[in-house]
Amino acid sequence: MPRMRNRWEHPPGGWQAIQPEMGQATPFTGSFHHCCEQLLALRQANPFLCERHGLSTDMASIEAEIDFYNATRCIAGGWTQFVILDDPASASAGYTAPPAQKKIRAAAGAAKNIAAGISLLLDWVGPSAKAVPNELAEKRASVCATCPLNGQGGLLEYFTSAAAEKIRTQLAIRADLQLKTSLDPQLGTCTACSCWLPLKCHVPIEFILAHTSDEVKSKLDPRCWVLAESKQP
Q1: Which residue positions in the chain have pLDDT lower than 70?
Q2: In whole angstroms, what is the distance from residue 17 CA to residue 37 CA?
Q3: Which residue, among 26, 25, 35, has the nearest Cα to 4 in the 3D structure?
Q4: Torsions phi, psi for 212 (to 5 deg)
Q5: Distance CA 173, CA 2 (A)
Q6: How far apart are CA 72 and CA 218, in angstroms?
Q7: Which of 1, 5, 19, 196 is deepest in the core (most CB within 10 A)?
Q8: Angle between helices 59-77 and 110-125 (to 10 degrees)
């Protein structure tokens, strides 16, 4: 998992922290420690929402989340000089995953699918976050919106808190890139591949296929756009 090289050094735009689950549209900015304190205060003032979304009020967890968010933001912006791109030791730092929760996590092999879905999103953001044309994203979303495998519910219905936090980071970056479709409110998590559909609809097919095993393909709905696009020359 990527992390920042130096928490005392300001990246482009300064350090940032955002909590969209609490209606925050504009991120906190400033020093690393200022952002941590602001995010902690926001969460402490909203205990119900913290419980609902599985948000921690432990400072070590908040520091890890903000470090990861800004590292991923720097990667998306091309400012990789501020980031340590591969740091396995930090992958679980500051996070405590709760017990398996509902649906996907209860299925055999789900953990591997979730890891592949997250890896897909990180790999996509890493190079340049180049998205498919809006017309194609809309076409994909129209398929997902009516798919029986389109699982609804919050992130913690499908992911551990650590995985959900990574997806939240990607959602914030997606908002920065102004990627959306008219069907976003109808999209959830694919219960076959464990990918967060409001993001996946914008990802080029080559990144998706690189992280989709034959086993996962066999579980997709026959009408899935991933299968259709994988057959195109």
Answers
A1: 1, 86-129, 152-177, 233
A2: 10
A3: 35
A4: -120, 110
A5: 15
A6: 31
A7: 196
A8: 50
List, for residues 2-48, the tens digit of each pLDDT value.
Answer: 789 999 999 988 899 888 778 777 788 999 999 999 999 999 998 88
Cα separation, 228 vs 59, in Å, equals: 46
Residue 165 dihedral angles phi and psi, to the nearest 5°: -65, -35
DSSP-derived letter for residue 150 is E
Which amino acid is it at 53?
Answer: H
Return the amino acid letter for 5.
R
| The pair of three-digit structure tokens given for residue 154, joined into one six-digit string | 């919050």
> Which contacts qualify for 217-220: CB closer than 8 Å, 24 or more apart?
219/192, 219/193, 220/149, 220/190, 220/192, 220/193
Q: How crowded is residue 71: how many other Cβ atoms within 10 Å of its Cβ?
A: 25
Report how far residue 174's alpha carbon sits from residue 58's, in angstroms, rounded to the nearest whole number: 26
Domain ranges of the chain: 1-96, 97-233
| Position 195, amino acid | C
